[in-house]
Each structure stands twice: as C-alpha cells, then as structure tokens.
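Progress report, Aim 2. The chain analyzed during this reporting quarter is listed below.
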Amino acid sequence: MLGTLVRYTRQVRRPALAAITAITMSVLILPPLSTSASARGPDGIADVAERVIDAVVNISTSQNVASRNQGGGGGGGAMPNLPNDPQLDELFRDFFNRRGQQGENQNRGGGTPRRVNSLGSGFIIDSAGIVVTNNHVIADADEITVILNDGSRIKAELIGKDQKTDLALLRIKTDKTLRSVKFGNSDSLRLGEWVIAIGNPFSLGGTVTAGIVSARNRDINSGPYDNYIQTDAAINRGNSGGPLFNLDGEVVGVNTAIISPSGGSIGIGFAVPSKTALAVIDQLKNFGETRRGWLGVRIQQVTDEIAESLGIKPARGALVAGVDEKGPAKPAGIEPGDVIVKFDGQDIKEMRDLPRAVADTPVGKEVPVLVIRKGKEETKSVTLGRLEDGEKQAALTTPNAPETKPVIKKTLGLELANMSDDLRKKYKIKDTVKGIVILGIDAGSSAADKRLNAGDTIVEIAQEAVASADDFQAKIDKLKKDGRRSALLLVASAEGELRFVALALQ
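Predicted structure tokens for the chain:
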C-alpha cells in the first residue's frame, strides 16, 4: 500500500478566470526565449537522468526500539514530529520517515523490543564507495544498508554526521564498479533554472522529477546555517538525502525538507546547497566530524528600532547580545551592544550572515571583525576557536553582588524593583543575572508588545549597566532630555539568556 490518494479541487469564480486569461495573453506577446540547451530545459532531462541514475542509491535503516501500546486498534503509527518546535511541526512535516516508519509486521506488545525500518535516499560521490545522505535518514540506526540501482544491497559504515546541516557520510565496500557524481556550483544557480531530483519516494525506487529553482538562500528556521535552495521539483517521503542535479548532471543540492500540510509534495521543497554541503563533507571525510570556526557571541537581528537607538543607518549587521566568557570574542574586546557589520572582509548584512561566515572560517585563523560601538566603527582582531569545543564548555558563575534595598518604580509601562533574594527565589532568577527586575507590564503600553515578562531582568539601558530602579529612571530622563525616541534595553530571562529590546520613550 502506498497510502491514500487525495485529489484536491478548488472552485474559481469567473472574474478570477478572466484575470488568469488576461495574464496568459500578456505572456504570449513576450519576445521568444533563447533556444539554447539550458533554456529548453526538459529536452535534456532524459539524458541527464540516464547518465546519473546509477549513482543515486536508496538508504535502508533498521533500529531496535521498545514497543509502546498504542491502543485504539488503529493502523500504522502517527507521523513523527520535528523536534521541539511547534512552527516546524506544523509546516515542515517529517516527509523523510524520521527515526523509522513502522513496518507491517511490527510487534505492538507493551515494552517488547521491535524492529523499526526507514527508507531514504543518497548518492555516491566517490567510486571508492563514499555516499552522501541526510543525517535524519540514518539517525539512531543500528544497521544501515545501501541499495544500488541494480538492486544490490550493501551494508554501510557511518563515517560521520552533522546535525546542524542534516548531512551524513557513509562508506560501502564492494567489488562492483560504482558510478559516482560530482558537485556543481550552487552559487551559479539562477531563479527559474531547471533542476532534477532523483530519489526513493514512497519506497518506489529510483524516481526522477524535474522543476525549477524557485528561490535561493531560504531560511526555514531549522538551524543556524539555513540557506536552502527552494524548488518546485516534486519531493516526497523517501526523497530525503537524494541529489538535486542541474542540467549538466552536477549535484547542486541535497534534498532535505518540504512544506506540506499533508506530508506530500505541494511544490515547495528545500535542498542544502552544494557549497554548504561540500565544506561539511570534506570535514566528515577527513576527520569524521565537523570543525567549525567559533566566535563565542550570542547575536540577534538589528531591527529598525534597535538601529535607531544605536544611531545606525541603515539597519544592518548582527547585534551582540552576549559574549561567552571562554570564547575568542572576549579577549578580543568584543562587547554586548556591539553590532558586527563585517567579518573577515565579508559584509554582514543581517544576523544570519554571521554564523555561516564564522562556521566556514578555519579554526585558529586570526580575522578582523568590524563592529559599530556607540556610533563609531572599530576593528577587533579575533583568533577563532572551534565551535564544537565551545559547545562543551560549562558556563562560568560569578560571585553575588552586594544586596541592594528593594525600590519599586513605575515607568514606560513597567513596574520595576531592585534585585533581592526574595525576587530571585520567586522568579527563579540565576545568581549570575544582575540588574533590576520587571514585576509587571501595563497591558496598554508599548512594553506589552515586546514580549517582556514578569521575572525578566533589565541588565543595561543605552549600553550602560543598571544598578537600581532609581538609576534606570534617571537614565530614562536623560535620554528624553537628549531627544531620543527610544531606549535600548538589554534584558535577561531568569535563566540568563540575553536579548536587546528597543522601547519607545513617548
């Protein structure tokens, strides 16, 4: 059984049809398109598919898990969810049979171990037996089998995997002559260019679909290095980990995710660009793990309000919300409130540009970092650490500050109090968090729109530390006197997570 087939229909009123007809007629009078091979698109798809299909493989994994009593006497298990993100759970249905789709003969007894199988796709990049796929295709697998296009089944060894880009590298050993494919340059892709997806949808084996590049550099909030290729080439369950080809037969992407309310293709699929994949694959091949550069800062987007508060025109860069005490940025002199606008010669136009630039830079390299601090540009020299080492480091604790007398103030729609042991206990505020505590927010104030909560702590205002509620009010009065329209607050959650908030002073 392949599943339930659903036909979608939609009624269209006559005025809408008239509009569509008009648009169609306008297209007909455009100048004729080029007749080059690349422009003809579909004419070359059969040749490309024939040339590369033997390099595309199916990935079969199995895992022993404890069975759960599902009750209700229903059929197959529910579709698994993406981890800990309601938005992704709603939009990015797990089309790739994450952690195994239940087989027909699984044991449903309570607590009894059962065998769970899943199927995905992959492709051979080296005739020595090196195979690329998605990390989620092989995650937690006890056994991985690569199935060649001729039906041969070969046990695979995991070389390495990377959760952040959802890539994995496998090795197979066989006496067979293996067909391999090469990577192309994903940066050269143009919108509207034809691409071909080959994979194992619905366990049907090597299937070819074609479409165009709908968009580039898509951020789908799945990780820190999102810059997906979007395509309307049909991608469905089991396609995950398969290659996206250009018309030269080069791999320009690794098919990874789709947007779908039903789990099937609606023409919005995403692939990891070859430029991103190549850097990760080289590291996995050489080291069995990734070795990314690490700056040691927590960053956030520079909104128009924050840019105005900092005197930056136009809004750009990545705002440093916090600096790791053991990270490379600390000794280099980078501070919270700095806006990073250039890294190692690369312009940082928005926040998400920085993590990719840092990760692609070799560990140990000394790089110039251009920051804007209090309206002036400064260049800091940073020797990058290794991200994976930084993630293992424990956070340092700092000694408690002297206790101050609780003072309650109401300003800008906020009810504020000096930090005290009672407030720390009440809101479970970590000892490392210093500043003044928000006790309440007026519902009709501008502060209510900034996701501020009782128990949050204001650490700084206008990039200056806040010692007390009276100190906060004095700084507000000064900003108003200076004609400022907003105040930039550095706010900490009870756990110590920092973010900047621009609050209107009117």
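The chain has three domains: 41-68+84-290, 293-392, 408-504. The two ends are 64 Å apart (CA to CA). These observations will guide the mutagenesis work planned for the next reporting period.
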